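Case study B.
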Amino acid sequence: AQSVAQPEDQVNVAEGNPLTVKCTYSVSGNPYLFWYVQYPNRGLQFLLKYITGDNLVKGSYGFEAEFNKSQTSFHLKKPSALVSDSALYFCAVRDRTGGGNKLTFGTGTQLKVEL
Amino acid sequence: DAGVIQSPRHEVTEMGQEVTLRCKPISGHDYLFWYRQTMMRGLELLIYFNNNVPIDDSGMPEDRFSAKMPNASFSTLKIQPSEPRDSAVYFCASSLAFSPTGDQPQHFGDGTRLSIL
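Model:
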């Protein structure tokens, strides 16, 4: 079975400060990991993915995520937050072995960036 | 490139009525997914297709729900009869085939906001 947890329903950060949105996962084998962002009244948009290789993955809009196998985490980060980054962020996982071809999404973390 | 197109964007109907949601995936994509999003349950995968064939419908909540993909450019999700608890935002997503080098991201439509009165 595959699962993903986003322990924070909401994260508040001041514009210009670094942000972190947390994600931990559970799979039987090796994971494919994704971050998506959702703006109000819109569908989810792909931000970045981890497949293999370098543990630090860079994505769209200055976001990056760090894969940590020992901690089974894939936290989303950005060095300097913008008000326009305010949105709902989803982490997703697929087990490479035995996970079928479907993603399991977390419950989402609402990011609020304030002036 | 046009993204995933869903229609209608909003649907309000009365309990017991048939509801049909439509999706046009991105041309050339091999996979199509239907999701439901609610505050209580988050984002749930209902069913997905590969090359127009349903692969996993284990997320379909009841027999009242059915989905079809008659060709590579069109899919429908039907609810008959509809109930108030079906009220949610329904998303369609599509992706390219999974490759040896890793998964392809899913591309989501903007959803259909369904309200059953």
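The first strand of chain B starts at residue 5 and ends at 7. The remaining cases will be described in the next quarterly update.
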